[in-house]
């Protein structure tokens, strides 16, 4: 059975990072740190990307 990318249970904000971490079988803290660093480097593009991921993952319930 194929894995589905969905919102995670270990939510801090909307559950996107924890959902990605569950899909990849790694710790959600690593995803959160990488996401923050990517957002800083990309001058805020990560915030828009986070919202897009949330919309996509919310529809996969």
From TrEMBL:
Q: How does it sit in the membrane?
A: Single-pass membrane protein
- Provide the protein's localization: Cell membrane
Q: Does the keyword Plastid apply?
A: no
- In the UniProt record, the signal sequence range is none
The UniProt keywords, alphabetically, are:
Cell membrane, Membrane, Transmembrane, Transmembrane helix
Top-level taxon:
Archaea
Q: Taking every annotated instance into account, which residue ranges of this chain make up the domain Phage shock protein PspC N-terminal? A: 9-58
Predominant localisation class: membrane
- Asked whether the keyword Transmembrane helix is assigned, the reply is yes
Give any Gene Ontology cellular component: plasma membrane
Report TM segments. Answer: 33-56
Query: Entry's PANTHER family?
Result: PHAGE SHOCK PROTEIN C (PTHR33885)
The identity of this protein, by name, is PspC domain-containing protein
Q: Which organism is it from?
A: Candidatus Iainarchaeum sp
């Amino acid at each position: 059975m194929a894995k589905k990318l969905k919102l995670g249970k270990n939510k801090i904000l909307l559950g996107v990072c924890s959902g990605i971490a569950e899909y990849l079988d790694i710790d959600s803290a690593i995803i959160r740190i990488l996401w923050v660093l990517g957002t800083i480097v990309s001058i805020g593009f990560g915030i828009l990307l986070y919202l897009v991921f949330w919309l996509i993952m919310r529809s996969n319930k």
